[in-house]
């Protein structure tokens, strides 16, 4: 029997790095930085989202020992595409030279990598594709609000990718669980807005979080804290697994009070969590793949390890997935 497994991982970050001194100069308070445990992240100035996607993709492909022409399908997920239409992934396909690959996008906001992996696995099991690239990116500078210091302190830019190929031993996606709550559709997103601190300023697409839009902010916060742990519990029950069966967690990188609340409710000890929040910030749909790449690069994962990917995005949406690690991944990683 054959399985579709992660055989290569890659990541790409912009050149410019920012940190606490920059955040304070932009108006963030020391109290906010301390409460959210803010570190550093990277900001794209000259790099586009597809530039970052291409670099991450080529790294994943190269580490797998592939050439771009080997790819059958590319599935992309991005936060703030370069155009409303067509999707980023078509240009990424061209930039990396994967001219024989089909390409399409999956949009589930900040947790888009989870349904992308789910779709890749389903298409493989349907016998349609055998070598699949999943790539996710965040380039939010086009929707930045310079008058919102919290945004600047948390949201970073970057991309990550995984090459998925056929292997002989049991590996790959074990199960996925997705949920959504459209009641909170208005709370988080990108839409034409004036600056937060200058309501009569220029109107253009800007990222925002406004719990007051849902009518009852406390209801939104309660759902936000419980939704990911509940989804994890549902998936583990479906797979007949317990927390002791999970070796590692690669979470979506929300601010510390939220992400740590999720992990505490799930019951995962800190030494089993791989995250890059303090180095990369919140990189949208690239988050879980950046963390997966970090774990692979540091050789934390062993053959057969079960890895939980989990998180939440605007919409509001939740995605959780359990992945069995293939010990032969990244054969060309130096």
Enumerate the strands of the largest sheet in spatial order, edge to edge or round the barrel.
1-7-6-4-5
Terminal CA distance reads 30 Å
CATH architecture of the largest domain: 3-Layer(aba) Sandwich
Radius of gyration: 19 Å
Weakly predicted, low-confidence segments:
none
**DSSP summary: helix tally:** 10
Q: How is the CATH topology of the largest domain named? A: Peroxisomal Thiolase, Chain A, domain 1
Q: Mind explaining what this structure looks like?
A:
The strands form four sheets. The protein has a five-stranded mixed sheet with strand order 1-7-6-4-5, sandwiched between helices. The protein has helices at residues 20-25, 30-36, 49-64, 88-96, 113-125, 149-154, 217-239, 256-266, 277-280, 287-297; strands at 3-12, 16-18, 41-43, 73-79, 102-105, 132-138, 158-167, 172-180, 188-193, 204-209, 248-251, 306-313, 317-324. The protein has two domains: 3-170, Peroxisomal Thiolase, Chain A, domain 1; 174-324, Peroxisomal Thiolase, Chain A, domain 1, CATH 3.40.47. The mean pLDDT is 94. With 334 residues, it is of the alpha/beta class. α4 links the parallel β4 and β5 (102-105). α3 (49-64) crosses α4 and α7 (217-239) packs across α8 (256-266).
């Amino acid at each position: 029997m054959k399985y579709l497994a992660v055989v290569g991982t890659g990541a790409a970050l912009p050149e410019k790095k920012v940190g606490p001194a920059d955040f304070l100069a932009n108006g963030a308070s020391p109290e906010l930085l301390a409460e959210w445990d803010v570190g550093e992240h990277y900001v794209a100035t000259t790099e586009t989202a597809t530039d970052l996607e291409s670099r991450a993709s080529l790294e994943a492909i190269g580490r797998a020992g592939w050439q771009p022409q080997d790819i059958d399908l590319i599935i992309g997920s991005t936060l703030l595409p370069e155009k409303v239409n067509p999707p980023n992934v078509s240009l990424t396909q061209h930039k990396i030279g994967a001219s024989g690959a089909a390409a399409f996008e999956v949009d589930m906001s900040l947790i888009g990598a989870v349904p992308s992996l789910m779709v890749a696995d389903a298409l493989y099991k349907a016998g349609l594709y055998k070598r699949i690239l999943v790539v996710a990116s965040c380039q939010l500078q086009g929707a930045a609000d310079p008058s919102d210091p919290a945004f600047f302190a948390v949201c970073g830019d970057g991309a990550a990718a995984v090459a998925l190929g056929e292997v002989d031993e049991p590996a790959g996606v074990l199960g996925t669980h997705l949920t959504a709550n459209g009641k909170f559709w208005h709370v988080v997103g990108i839409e034409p807005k004036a600056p937060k601190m200058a309501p009569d300023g220029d109107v253009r697409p800007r990222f925002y979080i406004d719990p007051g839009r849902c009518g009852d902010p406390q209801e939104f916060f309660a759902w936000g804290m419980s939704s990911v742990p509940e989804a994890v519990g549902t998936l583990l029950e479906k797979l007949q697994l317990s927390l002791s069966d999970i070796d590692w967690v690669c979470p979506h990188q929300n601010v510390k009070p939220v992400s740590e609340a999720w992990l505490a409710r799930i019951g995962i000890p800190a030494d089993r969590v791989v995250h890059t929040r303090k180095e990369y910030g919140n990189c949208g749909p690239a988050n879980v793949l950046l963390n997966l790449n970090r774990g692979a690069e540091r050789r934390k994962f062993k053959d057969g390890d079960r890895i939980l990917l989990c998180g939440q995005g605007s919409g509001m949406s939740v995605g959780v997935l359990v992945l069995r690690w293939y010990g032969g991944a990244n054969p060309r990683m130096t």
